[in-house]
Amino acid sequence: TCDVCGSMAVVPKPKSLSKWTPTTRPFSRIHIDFFYFSHHTFLLIVDSYSKWLEVEWMKHGTDCAKVLKKLVAYFARFGLPDVLVSDGGPPFNSHYFTSFLSRQGIKVMKSPPYNPQSNGQAERLVRTTKDVLKKFLLDPEL
Question: pLDDT per residue over 18-28, tens digit each?
Fold first, then answer.
C-alpha cells in the first residue's frame, strides 16, 4: 500500500449492526443518507442487493423537494424500490416526503435516532466515499 492509503486506514470497531432481511433482487431496498465533505452536502443512495452506490451533490440545498427531485431521477433509471431506509432526519421525516413515497407504493423505514449503525449500508459507504475523496485530495494522481 502507498503511504497515503496507509495513513487513511481505519481499524473497525466491532459493533452490532441491525440485521436487515436480505433482498432477492436489485433495487428492491435502498438506503439513503446525507454526508458532508469539504463544505459540500451530498446525498448517498445505495442498493442493498447489488451495493450499487450513487452520490448526488446537493448544490442547492437539502429541502424535501430537492431530495425528491434527485430520488425521482434515480427511480427513472432503476425503477421504484419496495423499501427506502433513512435515518429519519430532515427532510426524510417530512409529511410531504413520506406521503410522496407512500403514493408510489414505497415503504419508508427509519433507523433508530442516534444509532447510525442501524442504517449500516449507507453509513459504511459514507465513510468509504469520504476516504476515497480524501485520498484524491491528498494525491490527485491516484
Answer: 578 899 999 99
CATH architecture of residue range(s) 25-138 = 2-Layer Sandwich (3.30)
Instruction: Return left, alpha or beta for 27; rule: phi > 0 is left, psi -120 to 50 is alpha, else beta.
Output: left
User: 123 — phi, psi (to 5°)?
Assistant: -60, -40
Q: What is the pLDDT averaged over residues 46-61?
A: 92
> What is the grid cell recorded at 18?
441491525
Rounded Cα distance, 118 and 91, in Å: 18
Say what the pLDDT of residue 28 is: 97
Nearest to 25 by CA among 46, 53, 47, 44: 47
Identify whether 91 is preceded by a cis peptide bond (ω within 30 of 0): yes
Domain extents for the chain?
Answer: 25-138
Strands ordered across the beta sheet of 29-37: 53-57, 40-47, 29-37, 83-86, 107-110
> Do 91 and 64 contact (CB within 8 A), yes or no?
yes
If we measure between CA atoms, which residue out of 21, 36, 41 comes closest to residue 107?
21
